[in-house]
Design a protein that fits this description.
Elements (H helix, E strand, L loop, with lengths): L3 H5 L7 H14 L4 H12 L1 H10 L23 H12 L1
Helix pairs in contact: 2-3, 3-4
């Protein structure tokens, strides 16, 4: 399967009108055969085939490298008996 976006030189969010214009331009350039251009157009105009093409040929992946994060945690010891006494006092 050849990348239909590369053949027609369109983005993944191209609409039907853009695809049809790109088809005419690709036919004028004669870089690809008419059969390859027709297959690419059919792939992009059929929603199921376009979804498959999007999966097979994803747009540029913008992933950043995972950076190391250092976290300092300080925990003070809490006397639970003080908390319980204060909780009951608030109910009175």
């Amino acid at each position: 399967m050849i990348n239909p976006y590369k053949i027609l030189k369109v983005d993944q969010d191209a609409e039907k009108g853009e695809i049809m214009k790109a088809q005419l331009l690709a036919m004028k350039e004669k870089k690809y055969s008419l059969q390859e251009i027709a297959i690419a157009v059919r792939q992009l105009l059929d929603p199921a085939k376009r979804l498959a093409a999007d999966y097979m040929f994803p747009a540029k992946i913008k992933a950043k490298r995972i950076q190391k994060i250092s976290v300092e945690v300080t925990v003070d010891r809490i006397d639970l008996s003080d908390i319980n006494e204060n909780a009951f006092d608030s109910l009175k």
